[in-house]
Amino acid sequence: MDLYLKGKSVIVTAASKGLGKATAMEFAREGAHVLISSRNAETLNSTVETIKQETGNNNIGYITCNMKNTDEITAMVEKAVSLNGTVDVLINNAGGPPAGSFLDMTDEDWYHAFELNLLSFIRTTRAVIPYMKKHGGGHIVNLASSSIKQSLDHLVLSNTMRPGIVGLAKTLAQEVSNDNILVNTVGPGIIKTDRIMELNQIRAEQKNVSIETLTKDAEEKIPMKRYGRPDEFAKAIVFLASGANTYITGQSLVVDGGLIKAL
């Protein structure tokens, strides 16, 4: 299947590692012109070189961007436009908020999660939509969490902020579909990333079990009996953000090997 991504201008935020990096890698394989961002220039440079080497695509760039900083978000979008003339695809991504229960969280924790995991998506989307309208359309995919379908234990901040992303995408789908802009949300189940390993370590300590035991127990609950791979998750995002997707918008998809039981 031709995904019609060759030469398309793509922004992937928080993409120096993890699911963001895997997503940028898949876009690069499809021949897109990809701009990635995160806060660490050294890590970004290393990631860009890795993507170039593994895909043979040299149209990969980076810019440092704190997703809580409006000016830096604006600069990121402007760089993509200066390099490629527009923004055809925006992949909204940000690091997950701290784990913890309701009474663990301070006002500062709530403000941080709101800015990082919801307001940043609003700001980047607001910045790219005028370019997409001018150039006849585009695709926006928000990376969220399986908490868009089912609440997760000990992750109250994610359980609160991620559904807001779904509401945003649903609303935008109604407002910009006539401009040929498609907006969707994708949440990972248990995908083997540094973030999951970090959360597993926290949970293992709370339960006073080894991380190996916790991992085995988690895999048993997944119908496919294994953690997902970052590239498996990324492929779903790339399809939704590609020219092959012409009619799916306002939807929420969980890539989880069948783990989430909610309808």
From TrEMBL:
Transmembrane stretches, start-end: none
InterPro entries membership: NAD(P)-bd_dom_sf, SDR, SDR_fam
Domain of life according to the entry: Bacteria
UniProt similarity note: Belongs to the short-chain dehydrogenases/reductases (SDR) family.
PANTHER family: 3-OXOACYL-(ACYL-CARRIER-PROTEIN) REDUCTASE (PTHR42879), NADPH-DEPENDENT REDUCTASE BACG (PTHR42879:SF6)
Entry protein name: SDR family oxidoreductase
Organism field: Virgibacillus tibetensis
